[in-house]
Structures are given as structure tokens and as C-alpha cells.
Amino acid sequence: MNKKIVWLDQPLITTAPTQLDAAAFADLYRSHTYAVFNYCLFRVGGDRVVAEDLTADTFERAWRARRRYRPDQAAFTTWLFAIARNAVTDWQRRRARRPLLSLHPQQPSQTPSPEAQFEENELRQLVQMLEPDEQELIALKFGAGMTNRHIAGVMNKSETAVGSAIYRIMQKLRAHWTDKTP
Questions:
Q1: Based on the structure, what is the number of domains in the chain?
Q2: CA 170 to CA 40: how far, in whole Å?
Q3: Range of the domain at 125
Q4: pLDDT digits over 101-125, tens only?
Q5: Distances (CA, A) of 7 to 81, 97, 164, 177, 180
């Protein structure tokens, strides 16, 4: 049975996710990895290495659990992002139990200008000051690029509640941003 999965305005035709072979799963991986990576990147404060690890962990968990996915209960992306959320939560719990020493190897820099870095750090600090649920919404909306409808499915809320919450969060961030800038 073919199932049409539409997400981020890109249709993907594949076999039913419960019967995925390696090639079909690879197609799903290619079409969703960027959004999952960006979501993880937002949730871990911009640490690309950790985000890459969590993205890999998410897809490994999805592969192992593919037979438990039920298309009649949730969209594939809702299921996949629930796995990603759990992977990030598990990572946060492990990190809280044993803080890690950050080692930054010297690599060629592809960093933006100092002004852009400063603004990015300021924005990251503002987002980190938000409540965990608010950070989650920002990560799903801007990190994963999800629509309010998809976020509502992932977070088990109404689309209107998601839209209103994102609007309030953006207002809060704008207010703090203008307070911080001269």
C-alpha cells in the first residue's frame, strides 16, 4: 500500500511506514533529516555536534520502532518528532546528572561577522530564558520549520493554541530584544 506523506509542502510517496525497507526509510531520512537536525540544534543551544548526534539517535530509534508506528493514530512527522523530543529530553537529563567538559578542537572558521555572532548569542540567551515549553515551540517552529498544524499534532494541542502561544512568545522576545539593544 502506498501512502502519501505531505510535510513542509513536499509530497513524498512511500510504502506504509510500518512496512519500511531500508531504501524507503532512507528516503524518509533524506526528506526529514534537515528539519530534525534544526530542531535538535535549537534545543541544545546551537551545539552542532550534539545536534548531529541527537539527529542520528532520533532516526536510529525510529528505525528500531518502525513496526510500532500507527498511521491511523498520527502523521509520520508527528511520530518522528515525538521521538526527537524524547531524544533531546533524554540528553538533557543525562547532561544534568553529569555536566560535560566542552572541548573545542581548532578547526577552520566559517563563522559570521562579530556583529552577527553577537546578535546570534543575544538571541540564543533570550530563547534560553524562556520556559521549557516556550523553547520547545520556538524549536519546532523555527528550528524544524514546522507549521502550527504539525506542531499542534506533536505537542497534542490545538492549532489555535499553538499559534497564540507562538505569537505571545514572539512578542516577549521582541520586548526583551528592544530592551537589550541601544
A1: 1
A2: 20
A3: 2-97+113-180
A4: 454 555 555 666 777 777 777 877 8
A5: 12, 36, 22, 32, 37
pLDDT (tens digit per residue) in 3-55: 444 444 343 334 455 556 778 788 888 999 999 999 999 888 888 999 999 99
Q: Identify the helix (H) or strand (E) that includes residue 149.
A: helix 148-155
Q: What is the pLDDT of residue 5?
A: 40
Q: What is the pLDDT of residue 128?
A: 83
Neighbouring CB atoms inside 10 A of 12's CB total 17
In a domain, 103, yes or no: no
Is residue 60 in a domain? yes
- Nearest-Å Rg of the Cα atoms of the chain is 18
Cβ neighbours of residue 134 closer than 8 Å, sequence gap 6 or more: 165, 169, 172
Average pLDDT of the residues of the chain? 79
Query: Count of CB atoms within 10 A of residue 34's CB?
Result: 13
* Nearest residue to 85 via CA among 35, 128, 18: 35
State which H helix or E strand residue 105 sits in: none
Cα separation, 144 vs 85, in Å, equals 12
